[in-house]
Design a protein that fits this description.
39% of the residues lie in helices and 12% in strands. The protein is an alpha/beta fold. An eleven-stranded mixed sheet has the order 1-3-2-4-6-5-10-11-9-7-8, sandwiched between helices. α4 (112-119) links the parallel β2 and β3 (123-128).
């Protein structure tokens, strides 16, 4: 890209911003102010943010500039702004999870992800919109109104992390954090033309991440380029003793892998079950073109079969609601957040019932009821138990496929972004958006979505999903960076530069 000072600061990628700050070409305060000005200019239309922490962001930026002026050793992302999904706690900053039941709650502690961002000198701009408690694929289920896709303001930006993805696509922030339970980083990345990574389960701490489904949730990096995602991944990853599911193992060198963008000799598996019927024609077309490019780059593309992926969606929508019904039981109006009906006469049970009725949205209530039913006496073995057996079969399918290939690929989402309101009243149609992303979460593997072009029917972004075994996150970046560079060489620019001006 051109030097930062030759263009709009807010439109630069994180690596370019960081290099310019390190070279004394620009300050963190200037970069942060440019992003805040961009938020002021366009977020009224996009609604990516629920809370902008303006004063604190500028204070952090000033602190980084002062440290840099002393010659202090700083991390590679020091001074770069970031948007944070509103499901991660941040001391003293509102954390709502997109729900009325937590409106106004300010947690008294930082999540581990936030701690590591602060330690790295990353400037946190504020909290982004999301489907309530991460339940959704469109960000239409936020209690604070939908986020809109910068490519077409009448369309969804994906979900549940649509706010983080939209902030990137609208050039409000160069980096963002999302969480991925069944595709909530990757699917928004696909429909907004950005990069999203779901790390290996346990590779990034879940301490301070408000739980939806504890065996599936995973925080991860969102960015406009593969290298930016790698730099952010390196900051937030690593073992955390406060998280019992955190993996005590070295973090794969994802930055080196992104620099070593070479797929020659790699075996890339085309998953037979993740394509075909139900996939938009333009999505298939762009995917086939990307597969051909990988072959031209020297990869050995082979077809693999994962027959139990057919049951992944059904298993997921038993496991997730079951875990959610347990995790969301803590929101009872007794300890924090909203409290309704406490007139001094009502019983504890009446207050809990009225609080949950007023505080939870329809999708949250739907999933709590599904989960409670699946876990109830007489149904546990028939539903939740069977779903866990299917999960084991899916994990075995992955293991067999990775015996034949180093990574697997598929379209990230079956369609491009649909119109706001188009599927909000049809839960089953909405759930199908995650059909290609869910298997990775069930198995605990890692995956990435990168943009591969625009669908010819509607001119909207299409994403390609790369999947790798647990703790092989570096393979995602090696393949993703190679394909990204080949596509940029083909187009003559990055796809994100085609976002219509807001």
């Amino acid at each position: 890209m051109a030097p930062v000072m030759d263009g709009d600061l807010a439109r630069q990628d994180a690596a370019t911003m960081a290099a310019a700050m390190q070279g004394g070409e620009v300050t963190s305060v200037e970069v942060t102010q440019a992003c805040l000005d961009r938020i002021d200019a366009v977020d009224g239309q996009v609604h990516a943010f629920l809370h902008v922490d303006r004063d604190a962001a500028l204070e952090t930026a000033r602190g980084i500039d002062e440290l840099r002026s002393t010659g202090a050793a700083l991390g590679p992302l020091a001074g770069v702004p970031l948007a944070l999904k509103d499901v991660l706690t941040m001391n003293g900053v509102p954390t709502t999870c997109g729900s009325r039941i937590l409106e106004g709650w300010r947690p008294p502690y930082d999540s581990t992800v936030v701690e590591r961002l602060r330690d790295a000198g990353v400037v946190i701009l504020g909290k982004t919109n999301m489907d309530e408690f991460a339940m959704g694929s469109s960000t239409e289920h936020s209690a604070y109104g939908p986020t809109r896709n910068p490519w077409d303001l009448e369309r969804i930006p994906g979900g549940s992390g649509g706010g983080s993805a939209a902030a990137l696509a609208a050039f409000e922030a160069p980096l963002a954090i999302g969480t991925d339970t069944g595709g909530s980083i990757r699917q928004p990345a696909a429909v907004t033309g950005t990069v999203g990574v779901k790390p290996t389960y346990g590779g990034v701490s879940r301490y301070g991440l408000v739980a939806l489904a504890s065996s599936l949730d995973q925080a991860g990096p969102c960015a406009r380029t593969v290298m930016d995602a790698a730099l952010l991944h390196a900051v937030i990853a690593g073992h955390d003793p406060r998280d019992s599911t955190s993996i005590d193992a070295p973090v794969p060198d994802v930055v080196a892998a992104a620099k070593n963008a070479d797929v020659r000799g790699m075996r890339i598996g085309l998953v037979r079950e993740l394509g075909g019927e139900g996939y938009q024609e333009g999505v298939r077309q762009r995917f086939d073109e990307a597969v051909a490019i990988l072959g031209d780059l020297g990869a050995d593309v082979v077809e693999v079969s994962c027959p139990n992926f057919e049951y992944a969606l059904a298993a997921y929508y038993l496991i997730l609601p079951s875990e959610a019904s347990s995790n969301l039981a803590r929101f009872d109006g007794m300890r924090y957040g909203m409290r309704v009906g406490d007139d001094g006469q009502a019983s504890v049970e009446e207050v809990m019932s009225q609080t949950r009725e007023a505080g939870f949205g329809s999708e949250v209530k739907r999933r709590i009821m599904l989960g409670t039913y699946a876990l109830s006496s007489g149904y546990y073995d028939a539903y939740y138990g069977q779903a866990q057996k299917v999960r084991t079969l899916i994990t075995r399918d992955f293991a067999a496929a990775f015996d034949q290939a180093d990574v697997l690929i598929s379209p990230t989402a079956p369609t491009t972004a649909f119109r706001i309101g188009e599927k909000v009243d049809d839960p089953l149609a909405m759930y199908l958006n995650d059909i290609a992303t869910i298997p990775v979460n069930l198995a605990g593997n890692c995956a990435m979505s990168i943009p591969i072009g625009l669908a010819p029917e509607d001119g909207l972004p299409v994403g390609l999903q790369i999947m790798a075994p647990a703790l092989a996150d570096d393979r995602l970046y090696r393949v993703g960076a190679a394909l990204e560079q080949a596509l940029v060489d083909k187009w003559g620019h990055e796809l994100i530069e085609e976002v219509p001006a807001l």
